[in-house]
Amino acid sequence: MSAIESVLKENRLFTPSDSFVKQANITLEQYHALCEKAATDYEGFWRDLANQYISWHTSFTQVLDESQAPFYRWFADGELNVSYNCLDRHLADKSDKTALIFERDDGTSEHISYRQLYERVCTFANALKAQGVTKGDRVIIYMPMVAEAVIAMQACARIGAIHSVVFGGFSAGAVKDRIKDANAKLIITANESIRGGKRTPLKATVDEALSEGDCPSVEKVIVLQRTETAVSWTAHRDIWWHDAIANQANTCEPTVMNAEDPLFILYTSGSTGKPKGVEHHTAGYLLGAIVSMHWVFDYKPNDIYWCTADVGWITGHTYICYGPLAVGATQVIFEGVPTYPDASRFWQMIEKHRVTTFYTAPTAIRSLIKLGADLPEKFDLSSLRLLGSVGEPINPEAWMWYYEKVGRSRCPIVDTWWQTETGSNMIAPLPGAFPIKPGSCTLPLPGIMVDIVDETGKSVPAEQGGSLVIRRPFPSLLRTVYNDDKRFVSAYFPEEFNHQLYLAGDSATRDAQGYIRIMGRIDDVLNVSGHRLGTMEIESALVAHPLVAEAAVVGRPHDIKGEAVVAFVMLKGERPTGEEATKVAAELKAWVAKEIGKIAQPDDIRFGENLPKTRSGKIMRRLLRSLAKGEEVTQDISTLENPHVMEQLSQST
Ligand code: PRX
């Protein structure tokens, strides 16, 4: 049975225990009251939350400004600083509380209190200023998962610099594209990262990205010395982190920001062109992060919270760098990988740090089931009270295992649907308010007007698939695509829906109870191990190889990764076969890893003398998807320009 079919047949409901309900931040009654308030007084609903949860420097008078729709503005005359909200406001009563428990790859760990984190952020913020960074400048952060990554992000927020974090697994080409698009002034990196005992040369990758001299905007590179390994050095441009902070004061007045000043840019894949710089602004983003910490993660002051994401992704922004710190939580941050030194690392760390709230991705769960389904039993996981899932649909089998083996049938699972663009959780259980169902992210958060529609924008009936949209703007929604307002409008508020509905790009169904199931992307975006990849991006990388004439990339279901990447390639010369094909395929895989990063590397490359095209020259992707899955092609291929290539393309190399 395929994952999607098994999701559709799922009807089990799991009701939260009385003891969970008793202590929950949001009960069923409160949930109904919030929904009612949002339905009857939408602006008042958000105004109250913004006043309740954010410490404002200057209060706002207007809640939502729709005059430039779909360029919505929230709390637009308010002033605040995000770093102040994450650090300074906790100093009065949580100065000695642990903010970060940083566990290194080698298993050693370090506790950093709110006071210490505040001082380290201030010191580094002063260092950035000393290097010439001012409000509005773009700063690229290309770091390992270490405390300094969070410190760097918070320091940018403190002085009003706009950070753009680039995942440490991306290649020089991807780093360069992002530097150029953001016109970045400064880069923060480390000499190396260490994950699973393996070292990755981050600084050398930055050097390569900057080497051809075509990133003239970059004035300085700050380098954290994570290991003893020496790196090459460009005088006047490169500066060690420890030298940059030497002699800097450990206090730094937070820069007063307007609610609608940009906070960060994060690049993500879309269906066309290069990755988009998703731009989030100060107050709305912060509000989404805080509200969901309280509602979805049921945050309590005694929690030990752990989100296993990397700060290179939106989950690491909202649910590591900003949300948990804004509510004053103690959180674990982890440098390594779940399988090192062995597949019990997560369970061992939960036991060691007495983790209460654990948030991870289905792909990690599936791979850990495979590597040791019984391993969690060997550890004391009694501290856990809530589990979370994010990034891709979780199949009911993995959900049940997570629920029973990790949560010991005690802990609700919050399956959270959201996106880089939405900034914070959109559809997710409020775990003390209503029952959960395997494979369903359940119901939209109060105030998030989710709908499932047909191509005309009309709601579809229950159990019928459709396109997932959000009918009203909400505070944490992206404001634009960096430097590309037009793309923002066409990608997210398209003409087909009169520029009024936010188009998520996912398809979904709703059951009779209103519970939502995400079916997957409806555009040319793949979700490989929870990472979003544009098929076009991989195709562009492939055709940039001197041997390749044309390439088409599709996804294929994969047990662990969710989706695998299959590339259909036509070379400029003859179609390779046998050993030659294996050799060229390996070369092309390595090429994509170099152009984009290992995560984008095709799992399977197939060569044809041509690609299946209609007589008007369009590549028939639907056919390729069937071929990739190994399905028998039942479609009529008689209109194909070149039907004989089908046989060639069904063969893996
Ligand atoms: O297809 C949905 C899937 O991930 C996409 C967003 O990817 P990204 O911007 O990288 O953000 C990932 C982390 C929030 C969505 O369009 N997705 C995310 N969460 C879920 C999901 N699919 C199903 N269930 C989820 N809980």
UniProtKB/TrEMBL annotation:
Residues 88-473 form the AMP-dependent synthetase/ligase domain. Residues 31-86 form the Acetyl-coenzyme A synthetase N-terminal domain. One of its GO terms (biological process) is acetyl-CoA biosynthetic process from acetate. The keyword Cell membrane does not apply. Acetylated. Deacetylation by the SIR2-homolog deacetylase activates the enzyme. PROSITE patterns: AMP_BINDING (PS00455). Transmembrane segments: none annotated. ATP binds at G391, E392, P393, D415, T416, W417, W418, Q419, T420, D506, R521, R532. Keywords: Acetylation, ATP-binding, Ligase, Magnesium, Metal-binding, Nucleotide-binding. The keyword Nucleotide-binding applies. The modification N6-acetyllysine is found at K618. It comes from the Bacteria. CoA binds at R195, G196, G197, K198, T315, S529. One of its GO terms (molecular function) is acetate-CoA ligase activity. Its cofactor is Mg(2+). Mg(2+) binds at V543, H545, V548. It catalyses: acetate + ATP + CoA = acetyl-CoA + AMP + diphosphate. One of its GO terms (cellular component) is cytosol. Residues 537-618 form the AMP-binding enzyme C-terminal domain. Coiled coil: none annotated. Catalyzes the conversion of acetate into acetyl-CoA (AcCoA), an essential intermediate at the junction of anabolic and catabolic pathways. AcsA undergoes a two-step reaction. In the first half reaction, AcsA combines acetate with ATP to form acetyl-adenylate (AcAMP) intermediate. In the second half reaction, it can then transfer the acetyl group from AcAMP to the sulfhydryl group of CoA, forming the product AcCoA. Belongs to the ATP-dependent AMP-binding enzyme family. This is Acetyl-coenzyme A synthetase.
